[in-house]
UniProtKB/TrEMBL annotation:
The name this protein goes by in its record: SMI1/KNR4 family protein
Lineage summary: Bacteria, Pseudomonadati, Bacteroidota, Sphingobacteriia, Sphingobacteriales
InterPro entries, per database record: Knr4/Smi1-like_dom, Knr4/Smi1-like_sf
Residue ranges of domain Knr4/Smi1-like in the record: 31-131
Annotated transmembrane regions: none
Lineage top rank: taxon: Bacteria
Amino acid sequence: MAKIKEIIDNYKFKFFFDEDDNRLNIKVNKGATTEEIHKFESEYGIKIPAELEDLFLLSDGIMLFGIEILPLAETKVFYDRGLLCFHEWGNGDFDCVSFGDEYPLNSVVFLDHSEDRTAFVIRSFREWILVVINEIGRLGTLLHPMDYLYREEKGLYLNVLK
């Protein structure tokens, strides 16, 4: 299985086009330090799941073909659900990595803002990155769960609202 660094290295010089023919690529930032990660974990009383920690060490926040993965300082913790938010959809919905008991450790979970409900998306953050890259390469976008109400394409979030 490819590690987070290997995945980013494999794609960092590639590009796709979005639905409006804008060029999309990966934009890497300076990585967080282990001290910054330990400070975050101490401050919030959690352990960041390993794959997300690997990404923070590689790049503290990253633009992944138009999808922003938040930097450590902007990451939100949802204690009651055992979820660590790494991506905001812009409408109050979040993608999160599980650190609690409700979902398997390191799995990706969709948190719906309007109903405060969650839905399992995929079993690991690493797999989420790979599937997201594939979907953006295929469709020029990552479809939000609501997009499936009026689009026929298949994608990662197809079953989230079911």
